[in-house]
Amino acid sequence: MSSIAFEGINTLFANLVDSKGVSKTGIVAADFPGERLIDSIIECNDYLIDANEVGRYKIYLVNSPQMVLDNNMKTDGRTSLWQWNGQEQQQWDLVYEKAKGAYQIVNVIDGKVLTWDDSNGSKRVVTVENKRADNQYWKIEDRKTLGYLIRSNKDTNLMLKYDGNATNGALLSVGFMDLNRSFFQLVQI
To answer: Which residues form the domain of 175?
Structure first.
């Protein structure tokens, strides 16, 4: 009983959330919510994959598993889809940067990073030299049975998706979530 009187809702509820006794939660109203309580609630609801998920991956479409992200040299730096053949241009290293809370997706064949080319209002996705700009970082959300959403760190309302049909050479862009074109799987290789 004394712990209630001396600790208050911030400590008690943060302890409950931190103990993993709650899977999802929120706050309707709170007088002076503490930093620990706010951080605990955000972490509880966080879909982002763990920073320990670094490594080499193939990134493929949920609705067309043979189609993967490909650093196709024939598309002027544009990243496209291509049928999996195991080549290095289809392999990507996930590199987590704690300061940004996001990943860079680095192509194995040339070390260039997946980048939203945001110049002049463009939504194109390309691979270019690493400048550590916000448009070169991605937040990767595990949506369980749906797959992964790969959100731009520069504008988290925009996510990686493909244009047109899931065929060889289909180009990638960023845009609002599309249930048919925005979900990917990551398989460590």
So the answer is: 51-188
129-181 pLDDT, tens digit per residue, is 999 999 999 999 988 888 899 999 999 999 999 988 999 999 999 999 888 88
* More confident: 21 or 97: 97
Residue with structure tokens 């009187």?
A: 5
- Considering the domain architecture, whether residues 109 and 31 belong to the same structural domain is answered as no
* Structure tokens that stand for 187 in this block: 């398989």
Nearest alpha-carbon partner for 166 in 150, 155, 182, 154? 182
Distance CA 89, CA 111 (A): 10
Total number of domains constituting the chain:
2
| Residues 114 and 153 grouped into a single domain | yes
